[in-house]
């Protein structure tokens, strides 16, 4: 469905390029909910923008590409970086971070829906007929069709976010990218949005990519999770396995920092700060914060590779452990 091939991207700044996405290689499968986790500033939003093909100054691709493929209405398609934008709304859609601002404040929701549906998809349908399709879609998602008559400011934050998700998914794209879809919403509303997303994915059998700094979100809804650190993936695997036994020292810290019901011991959080992307440390970028880092870790970049069936990680220690068991 989505192949990320040796992808690197950077921002041009007055001090030179900042490499924000580094040598990413992984696949997102059909019909899965894939999570992208990691601390703020590690490059999650930038990665989604590259996946969605919004590559404009100061962002550029240094290397690699993204391949989006699938079948829609019986017709197979395959699009690579530079062509993916042709498939916006139809095959791929994007709910940006702080999505509230994608709605036009002076337009009623129904006009924003009508604007987002391409002419060829409406055929010779009248406006009312199209709106009827929108209404039944909203009902399926558990939303009242009344939102169509509202202006964005008349809706609560949670309702606005639901309306945006409905707008992004109305054309049933095979792939939906959602950037921090529940951040800034209170816990009860968060749960509602997550339920809406999982129901939608089950019903329409599309692929959902959820970016969140909140590991709890990934634990609740993702089939697989990729953990990002300083522009690269450090670990990727099935959610249940990764939470039960995180392999990379950074994943261990992230998961160890999660509150556990009934556990009264103080959670430590992660000591240290993420490295500067402008001037990253040589070798493994996590080495300066890693309790187990060796000389080699500070010198040599570890390769992101399959360490067990279905489980990928970039860590010299894992490689050395595997060798000592062999
Ligand atoms: N327009 C930009 N110009 C230069 N640097 C940027 C720009 N946008 C983001 N960055 C930098 O890229 C890094 C990754 O940012 P981002 O992708 O937003 O991370 P995340 O979504 O994980 O918080 C940050 O260090 C940020 O400062
Ligand atoms: Mg972000």
Describe the structure.
- By secondary structure, this protein is an alpha/beta fold.
- The chain is built from 11 helices and 12 strands.
- Strand 11 (305-308) and strand 12 form a beta hairpin.
- Helix 5 packs parallel to helix 6.
- The longest helix has 18 residues, at 187-204.
- The site of magnesium ion has 5 residues, from helix 1.
Main attributes?
326 residues, alpha/beta, Rossmann fold, 4-stranded antiparallel beta sheet, 11 helices, 31% helix, binds adenosine-5'-diphosphate
Each distinct ligand: adenosine-5'-diphosphate, magnesium ion
Structural class: alpha/beta
Molecular shape:
globular
CA(first)-CA(last) distance:
35 Å
Compute the number of structural domains. Answer: 2
Q: Give the assembly state of these chains.
A: single chain
In the predicted model, the low-confidence regions spanning at least 5 consecutive residues are: none
Strands, count = 12
The CATH architecture designation of the largest domain is 3-Layer(aba) Sandwich
Radius of gyration: 21 Å
The CATH class name of the largest domain reads Alpha Beta
| SSE order | EEEHEEEHHHHEHEHEEHHHEEH
State the helicity in percent bands: 25-40%
| Fourth-level CATH superfamily of the largest domain | P-loop containing nucleotide triphosphate hydrolases
CATH topology of the largest domain, by name, is Rossmann fold
Strand content: 25-35%
The number of distinct helices, counting runs of at least 4 residues, comes to 11
User: What's the story with the biggest beta sheet?
Assistant: 8 strands, mixed
Chain-averaged pLDDT = 91
Give the strand order, joined by hyphens, for the main sheet. Answer: 6-7-8-3-9-10-12-11
């Amino acid at each position: 469905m989505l192949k990320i091939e040796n992808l690197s991207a950077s921002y041009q700044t007055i001090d030179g390029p900042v490499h924000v996405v580094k040598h990413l290689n992984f696949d997102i499968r059909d019909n899965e909910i894939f999570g992208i986790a990691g601390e703020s500033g590690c490059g999650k939003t930038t990665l989604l923008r590259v996946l969605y093909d919004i590559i404009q100054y100061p962002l550029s691709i240094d290397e690699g590409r993204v391949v989006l493929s699938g079948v829609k209405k019986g017709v197979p398609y395959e699009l690579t970086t530079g062509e993916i934008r042709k498939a916006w709304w139809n095959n791929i859609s994007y709910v940006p971070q702080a999505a509230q601002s994608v709605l036009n404040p002076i337009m009623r929701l129904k006009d924003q829906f009508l604007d987002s549906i391409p002419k060829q998809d409406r055929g010779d349908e009248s406006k009312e007929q199209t709106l009827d399709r929108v209404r039944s879609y909203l009902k399926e998602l558990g939303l009242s069709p009344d939102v169509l008559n509202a202006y964005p400011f008349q809706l609560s934050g949670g309702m606005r976010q639901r309306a945006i998700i409905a707008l992004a998914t109305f054309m049933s794209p095979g792939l939906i990218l959602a950037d921090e879809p529940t951040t800034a919403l209170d816990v009860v509303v968060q749960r509602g949005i997550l339920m809406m997303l999982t129901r939608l994915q089950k019903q329409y059998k599309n692929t959902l990519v959820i970016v969140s700094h909140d590991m709890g979100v990934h634990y609740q809804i993702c089939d697989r999770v990729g953990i990002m650190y300083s522009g690269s993936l450090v670990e990727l695997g099935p959610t249940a396995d990764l939470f039960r036994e995180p392999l990379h020292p950074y994943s261990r810290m992230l998961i160890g920092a999660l509150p556990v019901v009934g556990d009264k011991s103080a959670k430590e959080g992660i000591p240290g700060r993420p490295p500067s992307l402008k001037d990253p440390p040589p070798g493994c970028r996590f080495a300066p914060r890693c309790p187990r880092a060796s000389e080699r870790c500070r010198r040599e970049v570890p390769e992101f590779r399959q360490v067990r069936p279905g489980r990928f990680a970039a860590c010299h220690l894992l490689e050395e452990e595997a060798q000592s068991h062999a």
